[in-house]
Amino acid sequence: DAAVRRLLEVTLRSGILDGFEEAAEESIDRPEHRQLAREAAAEAIVLLKNDADVLPLDPGEIRTLAVIGPSADAAHVQGGGSAGVTPHYSVSPLEGIRARCGADIAVRYQRGCTNHKVLPSLGARLVPSGFEVEYFENPGFSGDPVLTENSRRIDFFWEGRLEPEVDPEIQAVRFTGTFVPTECGAYTLSLTSAGRSRLFIDGIELIDNWTQQTRGDSYFGAGTVEMKAQLEMREGEEREIRIEYCRSNPFLAGVRVGALLPVPEDLIDQAAAAAAEADAAVVVVGLDNKWEGEGGDRVDVELPGRQAELVEKVAAANPNTVVVVNAGSVVAMDWVDRVAAVLQLWYPGQEMGNALADVLFGDANPSGRLPTTFPKRIEDNPAYLNYPGENGEVLYGEGIFVGYRYYDRKRIEPRFAFGHGLSYTSFSYGELRLDRDTMAMNGELAASVEVTNAGERAGSEVVQLYLSDLECSLARPDQELKAFEKVALAPGETKTVRFTLTPSALSF
After folding, report:
1. CB–CB of 101/256 below 8 Å?
2. In angstroms, rounded to a whole number, what is the distance separating the alpha carbons of residues 447 and 434?
3. What gap in Å lies between CA 378 and CA 384, rounded to an integer?
4. Cα distance between residue 166 and residue 176, in whole Å
5. Going by C-beta distance under 8 Å and a sequence separation of 6 or more, which residues neighbour residue 164?
């Protein structure tokens, strides 16, 4: 009844029951939306470590800033899966930091290493004018296209029709653009598709995924393996790139083109050298929507590629090294004791780069808290012995002792605890007060505590209320989070935070 009531409330508010006609879906990019996205992203960032208050960075004391890492110049704003959305734009960490530094701070960028599972999508950086996309109702690309549009990149996945205007039975798409290399060297191009595809450079076929295909695990098992080819290119020398695609499945279709810049063998050494010459170094590492998404698990928690080695080398070169982890889940941090500060981003959306810059330079005070436990080792995880199971079955043997409940009971010290998160200010708590000693079966219990901003910066504290069951006939966790609230406080300000608990908070 409660669930149906909520649905009915929505239908009443929307006017559907009064003959409401659904309007066409719109994608509106407004300044206030951008600002809200930026604020939300900044509030979600978690400051995991901040030795010697290296953060926030002081623009008055920094003349050169090294920005390093394979995720620094890439806007990985969300994980992978069917819930993905196309943002109006996306700001990479490097772009956000450069915009914040302006002309006052020299920003030196080094890639350091790679971290891709599949090659990065070919997009506006190498094809600045975008792609002309032509849709045909025949597999031979004959006649005029039935629809022509533009796209910033080639990374499409369709369920059903490619476009409403195109015949659903036979469909082909041709992508044409101008490839502009940004540096000299061997570029690696890749082509993956659910259906037939081929890639041409200056009219010469470079990748043939048309006449013979090898099935892979892309596009939910309906696609081919990522086929690759290398091509020597010179910086600024324009090349025509053309991709032809023809669908073969009436339900699932997709095509993706990847591109990898030349990879010198001394990338890490170049990054360490840049860090040594800078006043501070920001290393952005992590995962992306190909490493994290629905339909599959990561086989370990290590940072892909040589990212851990990169962090170690940069930290050895510059004591003011800040590591930024852009990932949606735990990654190994064996290097954490050798860096000055660590931030967790969580794929924070289209304003990611600007939000990160706000936090790095203190324009925003980080107030995110960990919603999960970060273990020191994957072997410490409560599901380690149960997953992936045996003979096709997984035993959920942890019972109620999942997450922090397990670490508490086993007395295992995590890398970073559930609920952990630092701030650029400090907070003090008064005594916890209850409005009664007992609670009736249909009653309530009010708990309150005074929280004071004891520092010199405005900030937000996340007040967390945990309960412990001291006398119980069954095994219970040592403590359980039952309520939390984020409270914003000016320097020296005190506020009273109140929680109301019902019998359900004490029941199991």
Report:
1. no
2. 5
3. 7
4. 19
5. none
Question: What is the C-alpha separation between 468 and 490, in angstroms, rounded?
Answer: 32
Q: 308-341 burial string, b = 16+ CB within 10 Å, else e?
A: bebbbbbbebbebbbbbbbbbebbbbebbeebbb
- The predicted-structure confidence for 162-205, as pLDDT tens digits, reads as follows 776 666 666 899 999 999 999 999 999 999 999 999 999 999 99
Other Cβ atoms less than 10 A from the Cβ of 142: the count is: 9
Which amino acid belongs to residue 158? Answer: W
At 77-106, the pLDDT tens digits run 998 877 778 899 999 999 999 999 999 999
Listed residue (142, 171, 169) closest to 156, CA to CA:
171
Average pLDDT, stretch 369-392? 93
Residues contacting residue 69 through CB under 8 Å, at least 6 positions apart: 111, 112, 113, 271, 283, 284, 285, 307, 310, 324
- When pLDDT is cut at 50, 70 and 90, the band that residue 405 belongs to is very high
Q: What is the mean pLDDT of residues 476-499?
A: 97
DSSP H or E run through 44: helix 31-44
Q: Please state the rounded mean pLDDT for residues 115-122.
A: 90
What letter would DSSP give residue 459?
E
Please give the model's pTM, rounded to 2 decimal places.
0.89
3-state secondary structure 269-283: HHHHHHHHCCCEEEE
Alpha-carbon distance of 171 to 161, in angstroms, equals 9
- DSSP letters, 234-297, are -TT--EEEEEEEE---SSEEEEEEEEE----TTHHHHHHHHHHTSSEEEEEEE--TTTSBTT--
What's the confidence (pLDDT) of residue 167?
A: 66
The sheet carrying 204-209 orders its strands as: 147-151, 131-136, 172-179, 239-246, 196-201, 204-209
Task: Report whether 452 contacts 401 (CB < 8 A).
Answer: no
Residue 86 sits at φ, ψ, to 5 deg, of -100, 110
The predicted model gives 55-64 an average pLDDT of: 96
CA torsion angle 242 246 251 256 (round to 10): -20
Q: Which of 270, 289, 292 is nearest to 108 (CA)?
A: 270
Pair of tokens at residue 468: 């412990």
Phi/psi at 430 (5° precision):
-85, -165
Is cis: bond before 388, omega within 30 of 0?
yes
